[in-house]
Amino acid sequence: MKIAVTTSGENLSSPLDSRFGRTPKFLIYDTDKEEFYVIDNTQNLNAPQGAGIQAAQNVAKEGVSAVITGHCGPKAFHVLKTAGIKVFYSNAKTVSEALEEFKSGRLTEATGADVEGHWV
Amino acid sequence: MIIAVLSGKGGTGKTTVALNLARSFGTPVQLLDCDVEEPNAHLFLPGEVRCTESVSVPVPKVDEAKCDACGKCSEICQFNAIISLKTKPLVFSELCHSCGGCALVCPQKAISEVPKFIGLIETIKYQSIFLIQGRLNVGVAMSPPLIKEVKLRLLPNMPVILDAPPGTSCPVITTVKDADVAVLVTEPTPFGLHDLELAVEMVKEIGPPFGVVVNRVGIGDDRVHEYCEKNRIPILAEIPDDRQIAEAYSRGEIIVDVLPRYRKVFENLLISIKKLAKKEE
Predict the structure, then answer these.
(1) Could you give the domains of chain B?
(2) Mind listing the pLDDT tens digit for each residue in B191-235?
(3) Are the C-beta atoms of residues B144 and B171 closer than 8 Å to each other?
(4) Could you tell me the residue ranges of all domains in chain A?
(5) pLDDT tens digits for range B58-107
(6) Of A44, A82, A119, which has the smallest distance from its Cβ to B85's Cβ?
(7) Which of B78, B87, B92 is opposite residue A75, by nearest beta carbon?
């Protein structure tokens, strides 16, 4: 399965970004092949609002089954849920730490958004 | 003549200037409170509400039985208000800008537009002032559609004063568009100057002739005056920092009504504004 992890860096030792919608990049990790690649969280700059919705579409396009991030707002959560993507919250320092937590079953699936939606 | 009263910074005295200008006309005048998130001009005009209208904007509604999840609606939307991940679309109506694009491109004709209530427009008459105010519904994030509706009620046969919201973003631009002249209210403080500069840049883009009213003169420093001089921006009026003005304001009173010594200030301001508008013609 593929997992998207929010990050500002390019590799497994990069820091986990606590934001979902406004994270600079996603590291997409394939647990079967134990390989990864990084995508930019491209945003339509015409839209001052709805960053989380766009980010959710970006990861959905990659065909991931789960997202690991710090926080997630209600709209993004709604889109991820509709796309059948599970959300896991983590306080890990790095991407690899977060993935370790996930693999060892230390993260529990989120049942909802953990922050309010925000208006820019 | 349409006069827009605006300011970059909040709390500099837009409503004070707008109300006192309206009182200084002496003939019937329309005052449009375009600060629809926090309309306050009515606090000073104890007339009865003569008319209340509700305002809606069109937002998409998806008929899921007709939808084949092609995703075209999602592709055309620039604001993420309708999302399809090759699934039946999700609608986030609070992000919708009511362009109607999704309904147009839907091959299955599965999208119709339904009204979403965004706020009220109230008309109040107090002596020779006709006040029209918008009241945005709590939770609605976009005010320009309601501001546009307020401005549709503008009458061509009398002078109009537009009381703008603070700032320099879309709601202010929506208000100032089609004004014949703009009055920028500021205070002589570093904050006032900073936001005045932003407001000047914005008004230059929109185009009407403009001048500055410096309120609470006596506090702060001389930098607002220096800035205006350097950039050849006319100072149309100066209102001193007077405790009696603040007291009158806090009681919901209009300065020219209760402090006659200030009548001349606003009469002269009106003359300067008229000159400014004329010069442009």
Answers:
(1) 2-55+120-280 (3.40.50.300), 57-117 (3.30.70.20)
(2) 999 999 999 999 999 999 999 999 999 999 999 999 999 999 999
(3) yes
(4) 2-103
(5) 999 999 999 999 999 999 998 889 999 878 899 999 899 999 999 999 99
(6) A82
(7) B92
Tokens of B155: 């009458």
Answer yes or no: is pLDDT of B120 > 90: yes
pLDDT digit string, tens, across residues B237-263: 999 999 999 999 999 999 999 999 999
Q: Which two tokens stand for residue A6?
A: 């929010």
Instruction: Provide the pLDDT for residue A42.
Output: 81
B92 interaction partners in chain A (CB closer than 8 Å)? 50, 53, 75
Are the beta carbons of B238 and B192 closer than 8 angstroms?
no
Of residues A43 and B266, more confidence is placed in B266
Partner-chain contact B85 A75, CB within 8 Å: no
List the one residue out of B13, B9, B16 whose CA is nearest residue B259.
Answer: B16
Evaluate whether B36 touches B165 at the Cβ level (below 8 Å): yes
Q: Mark yes or no for CB contact B141/A119 under 8 Å.
A: yes
Question: Average pLDDT of chain B?
Answer: 95
The interface pTM score, or ipTM, of the predicted complex is: 0.77
Count of A-B CB contacts under 8 Å: 40
Reference B20, options B277, B278, B267; nearest CA is B267
Rounded CA separation B119/B35 (Å): 12
Contact state of B92 with A50 under an 8 Å Cβ cutoff: yes
Interface residue ranges in chain A relative to chain B, Cβ cutoff 8 Å: 44, 46-47, 49-50, 53-54, 56-57, 60, 75, 78-79, 82-83, 119
Is the domain covering A2-103 a CATH 3.30.565.10 domain? no
